[in-house]
Structures are given as C-alpha cells and as structure tokens.
Amino acid sequence: MGQTRLLLLGLLLLATFPWVVPNFYVTLGSSALVWAMFALSLQLLVGVTGLVSLGHGAFFGLAAYALYFVTPEGGRLSIFLTLPLAIAVAGVAALVIGALSLRTRGFFFLMVTLAFAQMVFFLFHDTDIGGGADGVFVGRPALELFGVAIPTDKHNRGLVGYYVNLALLAAMYLALAWLLRSLFGRVLSGIRINEHRMRALGYDTYRYKLLAFVIAGALAGVAGHQWVMNDGFVNPELVGWHRSAEALLMILIGGLGVLYGPILGAIAWTALGEISQLITDRQLLVQGLFILAVVLVLPQGLAGIRLWRRKAAESTA
Amino acid sequence: MLTQLLNGLQYGLLLFLISSGLTLIFGIMGIINLAHGSLFMIGAYTAFVCVRAFGELWYALPVALAAGVLLGAVLERTLFRFFYAREHLDQVLLTFALVLLFEEARSLLVGNDFYAVPVPAILDFSVPISADFSYSAYRIFVLLVCLALAGLLFLVIERTRFGAMVRAAAANQEMVQLMGLDVTKIQVAVFALGTGMAVLAGALAAPLYSVYPGMGDGFLIVSFVVVVIGGIGSVTGAFWGALLIGVVDTLGKVLLPGIAGMAIYLLMALVLLWRPNGLFARSS
C-alpha cells in the first residue's frame, strides 16, 4: 500500500474516531491532536534540520498566553483573529530566541533553548502576569467570521474542537510536506547531514536555520492556540521543560525520519498515559520505563518497525 | 547586604559541586545528563532519611557521597556507556526517563511531602562577624566544605596522574586509548566522581532548602546555565560561572524581586552574545 493511501486511511480513522467512542475519549483524542501538532512543529527542527531544541514549549505557551492578554474577561474573540495573532506572537518570539540560540550548536543549543524556555516560565511563574503560578481561565476563541458563527456549547464543544484540531493538523502536515520538497526543505536536510558542506556550497546556513526555527515556533503557536480552544486555561506548566521533553519523546517514539512520526508518537503517548492510569497510580514509572524501552530497543521509533521488516525482507531476498 | 552576598557565594559553591560533574561528564563522555538534578534530589532525600534514622546530619554526608559514587558507577556500566556514540536526542530521552523514574522512586520510598531537615546541633548558632552582623554557622560550614572540595578537585585534575589522564581523555580519547590507558576506567571514575559530588551537594543543601518533590529540576537548569556561561568541559569555567550565577541570583532576588527568576537567563543571553562558547571555552 502506498504512503499516500496509508495517510488517507489514517485521516479517515481520525475523522471517524469521535463517532465510535464515548464523549470522554473525544476530549482525550482532541488533546492528542494538539500534542501531535506541537510535536510535528518540532519535527521540522529535530528530524529535518537536526537541531535538538529543549525549549519548544516556550512558543506553545507564549501563544496560549497571548490569547489571554487579548481576550476580554468573560468574552470571546473570533478564531480568525486569535489564530493569526497566536502565530505571530510565537513566530516573533522564535525569531528573537532563535537568533540568539543559533549562535551555538549541539549541546549548547540544547541547553540555551532550555534556558530561554525557563526564562519564559519564570516570567509567568514568579510575577502576577497571567495569573501567576496558578494560571488563569481564558475565553475560548469562537468559530466566527463577519458575524456568522458556528454556535458552540458545553455539549458540542468537544466535537467541534476535535475537528478544528484535525483540520489544522492536516493543513500543517500538508504545508510541511510541501516545504520539505521545496529547495528550502532540501537545504535544511543538507544542513542536518553536513552543515559544512552546505556552507561550502554557498548557503548561508544560519539564515536557513533561523527561518526553520521561526516556522517551527509559529506552528507551535498554532498548537498553543488550540490548547486554549480545548481547555480554556493557561498556566506556567505549558512552558515547562517537561513538556518540551515530552514532545521530543513523541518524535522519537513515532520516528525521526518521517513527518507522520510525531503524530503517531503523540497518539501513542496519550494512549499510554491513559492506559497506565487504568493499571496503576504510578504513571511516571510506566512512562519512564516505556521511554527507556523505546530508547534502548527502538532507535528508529514506531515508524522504524516497518523499516526493519523491509530490511529483513531485503536481506533474505 | 553582606548576608546576601555570602548567601550568594554559598549558593554558587553548591552550584559548582553540581555543575562541575555535569561539565566533566559532557566534556569527556559527551553525555547530556538531565538526571543530574535528580542526583542532587537523591542526595537531599538521603540526608533526610539518614537524619530521621540516626538523628544527625554527620552520618548522612559520607553515606550520600558513597551512595552517589556507587550509583554513578552502576549507571555508567549499565546504561550510559551504551549511549556515548548515540545522538544527543537519545541521550536526552534516556536521562529524561531516569528523571521520571527517580521521581517515582522518591515518591514510592519517601512520599510527596515537604520535609525540613534540621541543621546539626553543633552548628546551630550564628557567628558574630561584626558588631551588628552575624551569619549562620551551618552556612559557613557549607561554604568551607564546598571550597575545600573545589580545591581538592582542582588539585586532582591539575596535579595528579589521574587528573592528567582525565584531561587527556577530554582532549582526545582515541589517542589515550592508543597510548595503552584504560579509557573505560577513566569513564567510570569520572562518572562516579561527578555523580558523587552532585549527591553530596544535595545532602549538604538539605538543611538549607528542605527537601521536596521536583527539587532537582530547578538546580539542574541553573547548572546548565552555569555550564553554558563557563564553557563546556571547563572546571575553571564552572567555578567562576557558578559563583557569578549564585551572586547574581541571590542579589537579584533582593534588589529586583519579580524579575529575579529571569535575571540569570538574561545574563546567559548576554554572555552568549559576547562569547558564544562560554567565558572559559578552550579555542576549538
């Protein structure tokens, strides 16, 4: 079966999911889609360009907080206003943080991105901006354009949110797939494989990396926006480094080399969290052992299972 | 103000114990260890458990050091050595898994409550330094112990045969191996040393900060900042970086409450703008 067909099948599965499960799982699926967007945006840096960032949560959180700052108390704004705003805020933040962090590489880059994310974390945690350490409720963006609105209430909100997430995730996937086929995407892959060579070929790799960083940050902003749409709540934890590490983990679970890897990973990670809750109170134990197993046994991620089979088939042929 | 300055120095020296291990482990093995903060937490909880069992902190310090060295050696042999050649991403996830597992182990063994750890009775007083100024004896003790350890570390690294091997391994591991030295032994030793110091730092810090879940995270990230500012692999850099961060953070909390949490990250950004490889980086 071709890859396109598999992807369409996956989309179909995700689209029918809300109709076959109870409401609670729609909400859960919806948050899995938000994580999928977040991890997918990070994949542009990690899997494509070879930049391991531990501070990606900063852009997710800043976009979510941006919504809090513009939304009047008790009111709601149109998504057509808030989404571009979230993207812009996250993108500008990524431009500033990226311009500084990309002066370093490897281990330094990882720690510097982490440190900047912590700076954002403390900004919200230590001051009263945005409700301080406890966080604050935010009016969810409304699906409304020029006065025409899809009305949402408690009952259909989960379902509507789910489909908005799915549409945005699909759009993000297509946009990134297109981007990777363009010259820009090829240059990014070239940088991952051998940055010196790319520079020798005359590419200003710093600019390419910075642009990739800004795009990835802006897309993380989309995910942050959708978080608010789902949960209507922001707190400093959104920026915390555990969240960024989890996104890296989703990418690794799913597979580094492919765009659908982070989506698989996000779904698997959310499912794992849910299943482990059924078995035991000790969720961290299950998660920790699971990560350990993935890192030790599946260096290619879930997507790599297929690769193995193909390799095995090739070697026997 | 003088109190705050001393507090800053003492905090900085504790940071040095943590970050020197972090920077050595990265410099020699190329391992990014996110679990280094958890080691600090393990030290603090070891102190708490020992004090509960024996009544005084004095037993806790050697126990913590021994436990840390042992833990480091075991982790190196069973896990980390397989990751020296792996991608940074894999190392991050391995050590992130360890962070989660250590937190869970802590929750299983000791629970999720905050605990205060009493200062040892002999040191439970204030030393009058001038007419209207006195300073906690335990803090002075911590300051002196950290200084002594820092001095010892410098002596070992700069003046002994083992130190020469460590420096050589940091510069070129294959060459060291070709010269017939046992690189495996160096790696185990450095790991055990780094881990031991982090755990000991936790035990020393327990009476000052009390012990609580997730306490390692904050120290981990600040230690990262120290390593970035000082330059990777440089113990000297870690020393000055730690003192700088300790003083800036402590004074920041007094002078500019509100944005104090951000001060050290701003400092780091400035250092990076000026010297992207850290203040004490060897030219590459």
Task: Provide a descriptive summary of the structure in words.
The complex is a heterodimer of chains A (317) and B (284). Chain A has 317 residues and is mainly α. Helices cover 74% and strands 3% of the residues of chain A. In chain A, a hairpin with a 2-residue loop joins strand 2 and strand 3 (148-149). In chain A, helix 3 (57-70) crosses helix 4. The longest helix of chain A has 27 residues, at 23-49. The mean pLDDT of chain A is 85. Chain B is mainly alpha-helical. Chain B contains eleven helices and two strands. In chain B, strands 1-2 form a two-stranded antiparallel ribbon. In chain B, strand 1 and strand 2 (133-136) form a beta hairpin. The longest helix of chain B has 28 residues, at 2-29. Chain B starts with a helix and ends in a 10-residue tail after the last helix. At the A-B interface, helix 5, helix 10 and helix 12 of A face helix 4, helix 9 and helix 11 of B.
What is the string of SSEs of chain A from the N terminus onward?
HHHHHEEEHHHHEHHHH
Total beta strands of chain A: 4
Question: What is the N-to-C succession of helices and strands of chain B?
Answer: HHHHEEHHHHHHH
Give the assembly state of these chains: heterodimer
Q: Show unreliable segments of chain A.
A: none
* Strand runs of chain B, count: 2
* Biggest chain pair interface: A-B, 42 and 44 residues
Query: Which strand order does the major sheet of chain A show?
Result: 1-4
Amino- and carboxy-terminal Cα gap of chain B: 40 Å
What integer is the average pLDDT of chain B? 86
**Which stretches of chain B are poorly predicted, pLDDT < 50 over at least 5 residues?**
none
- The share of residues in extended strands of chain A comes to under 5%
- Residue fraction in strands of chain B: under 5%
Q: Structural class given helices, strands, pairing of chain A?
A: mainly alpha
User: What would the principal axes of the Cα set say about the shape of chain A?
Assistant: globular
Helix content, binned percent of chain A: over 70%
- Largest sheet, strands/sense/barrel of chain B: 2 strands, antiparallel
Number of helices of chain A: 13
Query: Kindly state the mean pLDDT of chain A as a whole number?
Result: 85
